[in-house]
Predict the 3D structure of the following.
Amino acid sequence: MVEYQTELDTVLKAVADPIRRQLLADLREGPKTVGELAGPLAMSFAGASKHIGVLVRARLVRQEKHGRERVCELRARSLQPLQEWLDSYAEFWSGRLDALELALKENEHGKE
């Protein structure tokens, strides 16, 4: 459980920043160079590299050197710990919402 929690914490910290979430969104379209990722964000190469480094350490992005360029690729599978954590809350809320729906229907029938 500790390993899972550490992995989840790393992913949560990585996606907590809006710039890094934008980088991940841009990579959904396919692999991009660091320069291609930095350009639309009006960010320096160094700034983008720093954010990409956080994503690489969280295993959300894979980076390879192709000649003089570094190409980044999304590793969406690494979002699985986050999805599992969110799913556990979805199950909780689904049950609560089902109970609320039932209570509202019972209340509605009581007014008739």
